TrEMBL record, chains A, B:
Pfam families: tRNA-synt_1b. This is Tryptophan--tRNA ligase, cytoplasmic. Residues 19-48 are annotated as: Disordered. It comes from the Eukaryota. It comes from Erpetoichthys calabaricus (Rope fish). The keyword Transferase does not apply. GO terms for biological process: tryptophanyl-tRNA aminoacylation. The keyword Phosphoprotein applies. InterPro entries: aa-tRNA-synth_I_CS, aa-tRNA-synth_Ic, Rossmann-like_a/b/a_fold, Trp-tRNA-ligase, WHEP-TRS_dom.
Amino acid sequence: LDEAVKLLLQLKETYKKVTGQDYKSGSPPSEVTSTSGNGPTATTEDDDVVDPWTVATSNAKGIDYDKLIVRFGSSKIDQELIDRIERVTGQRPHHFLRRGIFFSHRDMHQILDAYENKKSFYLYTGRGPSSESMHVGHLIPFIFTKWLQEVFDVPLVIQLTDDEKYLWKDLKIEECYRFAIENCKDIIACGFDVNKTFIFSDLEYMGESPGFYKNVVKIQKHVTFNQVKGIFGFTDSDCIGKISFPAIQAAPSFSSSFPQIFNGRKDIQSLIPCAIDQDPYFRMTRDVAPRIGHSKPALFHSTFFPALQGAQTKMSASDPNSSIFLTDTAKQIKNKINKHAFSGGKDTIEEHRKFGGNTDVDVSFMYLTFFLEDDEKLEQIRKDYSSGALLTGELKKYLIDILQPLIAAHQERRKQVTDDVIKQFMTPRKLAFDF
Amino acid sequence: LDEAVKLLLQLKETYKKVTGQDYKSGSPPSEVTSTSGNGPTATTEDDDVVDPWTVATSNAKGIDYDKLIVRFGSSKIDQELIDRIERVTGQRPHHFLRRGIFFSHRDMHQILDAYENKKSFYLYTGRGPSSESMHVGHLIPFIFTKWLQEVFDVPLVIQLTDDEKYLWKDLKIEECYRFAIENCKDIIACGFDVNKTFIFSDLEYMGESPGFYKNVVKIQKHVTFNQVKGIFGFTDSDCIGKISFPAIQAAPSFSSSFPQIFNGRKDIQSLIPCAIDQDPYFRMTRDVAPRIGHSKPALFHSTFFPALQGAQTKMSASDPNSSIFLTDTAKQIKNKINKHAFSGGKDTIEEHRKFGGNTDVDVSFMYLTFFLEDDEKLEQIRKDYSSGALLTGELKKYLIDILQPLIAAHQERRKQVTDDVIKQFMTPRKLAFDF
């Protein structure tokens, strides 16, 4: 019964987010009000919901990202920008860029202009440690950030928002901090360079930094409750911790939050790779930045990594069958993909051979776009599956054969992460860059 | 013109606080709504206004403190409590207690019960550094706190809310911090023992303490916007910094905010001496305390120190003629008292001799109740002034003769406060107590 009530309340909340109206039995919603990017939640005409706490769509292909760009007022990552990145860095653009997985940006041309003029920037990304286990989808921003750090050779700061999780979840402070440390191990296992990377827990770093809290207070002075109500949909019943939290996620966008790294300089611009649902935090940050004498952070936005069950929702760390976890065994990976990965194939082999499968909704194929680096092979699979030459089981096998060694290697690297290594990454210190 | 507009806006604001209605020319206010101590501002029937930002009354004798006790739900400091303090400490109660300057408390009997059972507590008080100069009224909580520390021999923490001043005033962070340091010198000059006292700036200590921010977040999780709206009168147009600030003033009430001093223990109760206008912060703190596993702070509340112009308002650090400043010369002290101190005397010497003066509204006499320790002499002055035997000029001379050496001695002690002494007081460290 509890489960059913919970589901009902959740549905009512989603209803309210999508329609902007309270659910009333027997009374269909009136027309959806456009929020023009300023409303608490971005909803497109076909009722996609995207904010830091909810990502939902009724479309099996997933969120309509082109509409989201218009609504959020960001810029599409077009071929021209991708070509320019290749020119400036001398490196082939990452397949996340080539395939539109990172699809939207803010001010990337400004970052590249400055970079060409030998003016440096830094990378800032983060993670909300809501449990000790991360899934493959959580790797996306870190894989891309690692690539960016390597091709641009810049400092990187990674925020673990354990305070946020404490405020939003029914967890103790100590649990949230423990999750932060566990997640930190997975992040380190992605292969970041300890000489160029600083990872921090909010709960810990706030009490260690002469710059972080000052920036938090500066931001908090320049954002009203009306504004966070508009951007995040907070209400009068929300705790004051949630209401003021956006300033905590905003502060690492400013280099003076890290005086050890930037030698007290406040003029180093940040570039933030993140999933598009985090954009509301940084729209707010960009609004405040010039008013407190800082440059606006630039952004790279990614699409969402689909749940095994389909692209309608983001994966949930709390549902073990919604995703492949970084702790899964080879056998679990195989079983989950075979059993749960939503298929674009036809009901019978005969029909499949005749009509072909649909890669637009096939989750295994979507996962391959994230993890199979070889463009030609991916295109071959797409063609073969669409024509019916490739069966669903065969498609799934490609994915299993990629994910099993990828995750095994991750687990191997994670084992090497000792307490001492964690301490090195998490100690406020100068990095291998002079400012 | 600017001044006049500022005054008008201020009056309109006060009007709104008192009546709960917007000012409208030619339309008198309807009946005042009682807020029963839960409203944003405590107003008594005769329209006293008391909150952390406004203290105002139309009564020349000042605020009606008995009504405030009922409204705030605190307890009167009665003779029984004063006698008990004398019994427990073996010391004659401070004249601030004997004369009702500290007139209200919360849970003092609990503190004394525990103290008698050899269970320690600590003192917590503070100051909002809104300018570099403090006036004599600002000394009251510190004089009393010093006495408490000496008779009970307990640790003391003093919070300088430079972050609050940054949020509320049109000042830069650097200015607020500088004011904190300047005020710190005046506080040290009161004679606190460096081995038993920790003074901290919020802006600085937040980045130095492994315990402070964690308590702030815990408090912020357990207080909603609705609650701070009710307690402090915040609106949707207020910045999120103001909205979440009450947690910052609450956190030092909990011993785990000072792990260096209390060895990580969270069970040491605090006793907070403060002016009654700060009580809303601690009503909120006491409400949260049991829900996060801490004991409620006990409180001592003082009356307000009257402005030279009369007891209707608290003094303002921004109006040089409203008070005696700790930087005033002997000549300035004399001139200010003679020129600005509101007199309860009659218009002519003849009338004064015949009808006598009114010590209930005479500011010089009120100041003497704060600074003249000799009870008998004070009573003699009261009688003589009331009978007309003592003229206003003579009464003022008594006050001048007390304040001139008192402030000269303060200035002398303040000169001795070197940067090194400030650093000693402000360094997070163990004090001369074992926990």
